[in-house]
Amino acid sequence: MSTLAHVFEAEGLATIALGSMRDAIEHTAPPRGLFCDFPLGRPLGVPGDADFQHAVLATAFGLLDATEPVFAQYPISIEEDASEMIACALPPRHDPDAHPAVDEARGLRNAYERGAVQTGTRNGAGRVVSADDIPAAIEAFIRVADGVPWKEAGVPGIPSRVSQDIRGYYETAALAMVDHAPSAWAGTRWFLDETETGKIILAARAAMRDAGAKHALWFYMTPGDR
Amino acid sequence: MPDQDLKAMTADIETPDFETTAFTAPPPLSEATVALVTTASLHHPDQDDFAPADAGYRVLDGNRRDYVTGHWSPNFDAIGFAFDMNTVFPLDRLDELASQGVIGKVADHHLAYAGNQFDLSAVRMDSGPAGGRWLKEQGVDVVLLTPV
Prior knowledge:
Helix content of chain A: 40-55%
Low-confidence stretches of chain B: none
Oligomer: heterodimer
Order of helices and strands of chain A: HEHEHEHHHHHHH
Strand content of chain A: 5-15%
Number of domains of chain B: 1
Radius of gyration of chain B: 16 Å
Mean pLDDT of chain A: 94
């Protein structure tokens, strides 16, 4: 981000770089940098709050008045509300012969479709695994969690990418069931801590780690704090 | 508290040094053409997704709203962008500022890069300058850069 600011400025463009990580934007020192202490993934601060976003933009564009390189911090910080969990009713068991995670994913399909209409799957669901193939991808991770080497388990792509698609499928479904912008990470907490599939992803990730799989293959299956 | 933990985990990632800082004076904002450039790996569904370590960029059509993130990192909250694209890519806000006369014009096209880069040399030496020149050729004066 800040690297591009330096490069663009040399090409004759005036830039303002927003940054969510203070150390990075301070060290790279773009010509005009605005550190916004907001959750990662939310550089404009608050989803669905046009007034808040306009206030951030006003501060950012105000840096264009500077006559030399400038760094500023937006005066409002947003801390993660770790207490919020998306309140989404998970579907009841439908097929007793299916693994609970697979049954759950199938049960969320209608919500996913509604969410996809609302958001266009902006969060990237469906990049390597289509909605139709999500249950099969979950079955592959069930096998990994049970000890099958990931290369033999039928994971339909790079595990981290497949995991992101599954998380995206769930978060897209969740958006169809909430009436407000979830707080930062509330969707991820709900997926990993409340859903059957989230538990499978965590278990498969741990199994890959314990089996000595390459770090990048298992580590990025969930956010790095897990 | 994943956000604090993740920021702490990434605090030591090496960032590039710039011995000099280029500085371009902009025209008055009310006369400027403004573009967005994001490192959120956005692309349209009919464009190529970003590959791992993809140092290229995608041109985003400002008349469309079907932006999809192809970011490889799971280390950001994705549901905020899913709920409201302006959380990352504030194009609706720029359109409003243009209609109010605060900015001169919103560029017709914008750019997206992939932020999950550990080796920035290709962006610094190749795709970054190329993207900057392309924006300049489109008449862009001011670029707002947003991460994810």
